[in-house]
Amino acid sequence: MVRINGEQKDIAGRNLYDYLTEEGYELNRVVVELNLDIIPKDELKAITIKDEDEIEVLRFVGGG
Amino acid sequence: MDKATLDRAFDARFPADIKEKLSNARVAIAGLGGLGSNIAMMLARSGVGHLLLIDFDVVDVTNLNRQAYLIPQVGTPKTEAIKELLCQVNPYLDYETKCIKVTPDNVAELLTGYPIVCEAFDAAEQKAMLVQEVLTQLKDTVVVSGNGMAGYGDSNTIKTRQLMKRLFICGDENTDIGAGMGLMSPRVTVCAAHQANKVIQLILEN
What we know:
The structure holds 2 protein chains of 2 kinds.
Chain A lengths: L1 E3 L2 E3 L6 H7 L7 E5 L2 E2 L15 E6 L5
Parallel strand pairs in A: 1-5
Antiparallel strand pairs in A: 1-2, 3-4, 3-5
Chain B lengths: L2 H9 L4 H9 L1 E5 L3 H12 L4 E5 L23 H12 L4 E5 L8 H5 L4 E4 L4 H14 L4 E5 L12 E6 L2 E5 L13 H20 L2
Parallel strand pairs in B: 1-2, 1-4, 2-3, 4-5, 5-7
Antiparallel strand pairs in B: 6-7
């Protein structure tokens, strides 16, 4: 199982970029942390989600 | 007003070690809109000694509903306008201004030397860019970011939480200006106050 934003999900083996896109995240509005490292956006396509990964996706909204 | 008079007013309220930590602190504020202009005012009133103030824009009439600026300042670069206001509150602090757009290429050059950075941009894409770039390019910098403060919903949905080791998020993390709801002074100021208070905690508790 993979922990993503505090929830356990069965997504090991999925491509990280594909998963986030399918979940509806706009990638230019998020910051993605994988096992405590911030992932540069151009590296997302090269990452396969592994069992026991911990992922945090921070989604920004407009306003300031 | 002379510096000694302002110092005495501060000393009457707080012990000397608090004042010393605040006056030695270096804080950057990226974006001088509803969040950044109000954060800057609060930090100056609190005696934060060194503020770096960054924005590329000029004060617009549409800013007056929530930003610290005044009608005579419309058309003035925000960096100049905020410095003018800050000097009316405390002219003896160090205000550095940069009228420039922040990009991934200039993040390190602009923000090196400021261990605390307030993300106070308006557009979600700019917010994400700044947080991403500061956390990856500047290995010791802490970011305090504003995220979600549109409309007039319950103020208590605006919170501060530590999301990553060097990242604090203030806001409701939900309301978006794109959803047909604009920004109003109270919630923007609540969010700015969350950011300013977290900055002060970081300065005094470390």
